[in-house]
Every structure is written in C-alpha cells, then in structure tokens.
Amino acid sequence: DPSSLLTPGAVSLDVNMPNSDAAIRAAASLLSYHPAILDAGGFTQAVLAREWLHSNALPCGVAFPHARKSFIRDVVLSAVRLQPAVVFNEIMVRLVFVIGTPPDRTEDHLALLAWLAKKMSDASLREQLLTARTTREFCDCLSGSPVQTGLASHE
Predict the structure, then answer these.
(1) CA dihedral defined by 137, 139, 142, 145, rounded to 10 degrees?
(2) N or C: which end of the chain has fewer CB within 10 A?
C-alpha cells in the first residue's frame, strides 16, 4: 500500500510559500534526512529540474513533482499543504506531493503516480486533506484509515 510511504514527519501543513519552486523545496526538504536520500541537495535540484521540464500539476489543485536518480535508494514521498495556494504552470495548487525513486524502480514510480492521481481525483478526499488538523490525520485520510479526532467516544 503506497500510503505507508507517507509518514507524519514527511508532511507539513499550511505552509506559506511565494512560488512553486519554494513549495517544491519545502516538500523536498522534508525528505532531506531520509536514509534513502543520499544527496539531499541533489534530490531537491533533480525534482526542481524535472518540474521545470514538465509540470505535474493537475487542474484539481494538486502537484506531483518527482525525480528518479541513482542517489535515491528507495521510493520516498512527502507532502506539503499550501496556504494560500501557489501557481504551478498556471494552475493554483494547494497540495504538493514530492516523489523520489531509484532509476531501476520504474514500475514502482509509475504505480505511485497512478495511485496518487486516482486518490486525488476524489474531491471528498482532497477536501479531507485540505482540512486535516494534524499531519497524522492527513496521513490517515490518504491511507483510508479511520481518522482519530481526539474526541473520546460517549457510548
């Protein structure tokens, strides 16, 4: 299940960024200490270069900047929720998911992109991600796990 790739430590909520490059840098920086990233600066530059070449923003306000490089040892994923939205190639984006994969994991890379695109086609899920109060709640929404509201049940 690809949702297990996203942990609360790799999510940042309500980040205020001036432009898409800064938003990508913020999302990539969440993975800078991940053991699968052998060159954090190189990773950020590779994601930016790929985005400059071809933007991966969807009309629904979600972007999937990504990189496939040899200094990435395993599939990694981070997410930033922007407040306010930032323009990515003429599209106003609030959710940015940065993906990193090794060059020899093309199938995993494409499967993760397809999974995210399918998830983000669900307007209800996007709304849940946009209103999640904590990074844990954000991850739970994406995985389909029951969201812990922090309220005790009164049975």
Answers:
(1) -70
(2) C
The beta strand positions in 1-154, using DSSP E, are 11-15, 57-58, 62-63, 66-68, 76-88, 91-101
CA dihedral for 50, 110, 144, 77, sign (positive or negative):
negative
Is residue 46 within 8 A of residue 80, CB to CB? The reply is no
Cα distance between residue 26 and residue 101, in whole Å: 18
pLDDT in tens, 17-63: 999 999 999 999 999 999 999 999 999 999 999 999 888 899 999 99
The two beta strands, 62-63 and 57-58, are: antiparallel
Look up residue 35 and give its amino acid: P
Q: Are 112 and 2 in contact (CB under 8 A)?
A: yes
Q: Is-above-0.85 flag for pTM? A: yes
